[in-house]
Design goal:
2 domains; 19% strand; five-stranded mixed sheet; 305 residues; Nucleotidyltransferase, domain 5; binds zinc ion; alpha/beta
């Protein structure tokens, strides 16, 4: 059996998979985000319960919403309780097995290139997650890309192109990462709402923006066109750098009707003539890709040892 855990800022989920990657069991608990010791206790309880249900001691992979520093401590704004806590070492002792820890965006693409995924068996794939932020992960030459310090894949924090700012007279936005005008602030869910406001709309959510778009509102249409242009340009940069054969789009924004279908043409405008546009597909496993990819990494680590 293979267990995957996805630690989120509000919920922590565990899923138990069999050898064929069928879900045997899956449940979630509130995350005690501010209390590191309580969070370690929760992980221990989840794994013990999974062992009890499975009747064996399964392999374990854990997806985390941030970057692990050299000490093995997690840098994640929404999990302050884990700051300065070497997570891997603490868990190995408590869980009596060595878990694999990985950034949740990388777990996403591992799941989608895995069996049954939207990019199953692809050797070169990029996962773009557009939810409250814009995360990413890449598998290139069949290998998960991590880079020095685990930074690889942070495409959401590339800057907004000056040309696009001028053309649309876009507002400046300070990103949570400390840099100004990151693409994430314009292309993720809150970014879409921000664009809608910029063009004169009043929605407070992407759903409200969608409703305005369907009702034919001019501001919603302009936000849509601007968003598509920015997203196409951002993904074209990823293509120039990594040359994936397929891009898997996940997160709430990927569910906007027609968005994924419109992306190949939007992306091609920012590529050189003759460069093939990669296939662009919606994620197959959606929100479950985090736990599934984490479980796959845990299983793979067991095979390698
Ligand atoms: Zn940023």
């Amino acid at each position: 059996m293979h267990y995957g855990i996805d630690i989120g800022g509000t919920k922590t989920e565990i899923a138990v998979y069999d050898q064929n990657w069928q879900v045997q069991s899956r449940w979630r608990e509130p995350t005690p985000a501010a209390d590191g010791d309580a969070l370690l206790g929760l992980l221990q309880t989840l794994v013990q319960e999974a062992d009890r249900r499975a009747g064996v001691r399964g392999t374990l992979g854990i997806g985390v919403p941030g970057v692990l520093d050299r000490r093995g401590c997690l840098i994640a704004a929404n999990l302050p309780g884990l700051r300065d806590l070497p997570l891997g070492a603490a868990l190995t002792t408590r869980l009596e097995r060595q878990p694999v820890l990985e950034n949740d965006s990388r777990c996403f693409i591992v799941s989608e290139v895995g069996p049954g995924g939207a990019a199953a068996a692809a050797s070169h794939a990029f996962g773009a997650i557009l939810g409250t932020g814009a995360g990413g992960g890449a598998v290139i030459e069949g290998q998960l890309l991590r880079g020095a310090g685990g930074l690889a894949g942070e495409w959401g924090h590339l800057p907004l192109p000056a040309l696009a700012r001028e053309r649309h007279d876009l507002p400046r936005v300070a990103c949570g990462c400390g840099l100004p005008d990151c693409l994430e602030s314009y292309i993720a869910g809150p970014g879409l709402v921000r664009l809608h406001h910029h063009f004169g709309g009043e929605s407070e959510s992407t759903l409200a923006w969608q409703q305005a778009l369907q009702a034919g509102e001019d501001a919603a249409r302009r936000a849509h066109d601007c968003h598509l242009e920015l997203l196409g340009g951002a993904l074209a940069n990823v293509v120039k750098l990594l040359a994936p054969e397929v891009i898997v789009v996940g997160g709430g924004v990927s569910l906007v009707p027609g968005l994924v279908e419109a992306l190949p043409a939007a992306l091609a405008e920012h590529l050189f003539a003759g460069v093939p546009t990669p296939a662009i597909v919606r994620s197959r496993f959606g929100d479950a890709s985090g736990v599934r990819g984490a479980a796959m990494l845990g299983a793979r680590a067991r095979m390698l040892t």
